[in-house]
Amino acid sequence: MDGSRKEEEEDSTFTNISLADDIDRSSKILYPRHESLLPKMMNADMDAVDAENQVELEEKTRLINQVLELQHTLEDLSARVDAVKEENLKLKSENQVLGQYIENLMSASSVFQTTDTKSKRK
């Protein structure tokens, strides 16, 4: 019985003591900052990525707003060009009418009649 009792003690000793627990505890003691730094570093990296994403998002938003503003300006300028073209055509038409009217007045008036200078000299 003495032999079997000794084996039981050895078995219980090996069963109760876990090397993995000792390694985990020793790593916490030897490297306590490693585990606590890792999440902080990850959080810092995530914050940096979030900050970069925020800056990129703000830049994209600013550019989109600028593009939209330029599109509205272009639409306004295009509408203005169309209006000026219509007004130009209208004024050209009015000028043609006035030119024809002036020609008719001049041909009807004796003051603006062409004179034959040779016949008057004789």
UniProtKB/TrEMBL annotation:
It is found in: Cytoplasm, Cytosol; Golgi apparatus membrane; Golgi apparatus, trans-Golgi network. It comes from the Eukaryota. The keyword Metal-binding does not apply. The keyword Nucleus does not apply. One of its GO terms (cellular component) is cytosol. Gene3D superfamilies: 1.20.5.170. It is a peripheral membrane protein. Residues 60-94 form a coiled coil. Keywords: Coiled coil, Cytoplasm, Golgi apparatus, Membrane. Belongs to the SCOC family. Positive regulator of amino acid starvation-induced autophagy. Homodimer. Interacts with ARL1, ARL2 and ARL3. Directly interacts with FEZ1 and UVRAG. The interaction with UVRAG is reduced by amino acid starvation, but the complex is stabilized in the presence of FEZ1. Interacts with NRBF2. This is Short coiled-coil protein. It comes from Rhinopithecus bieti.
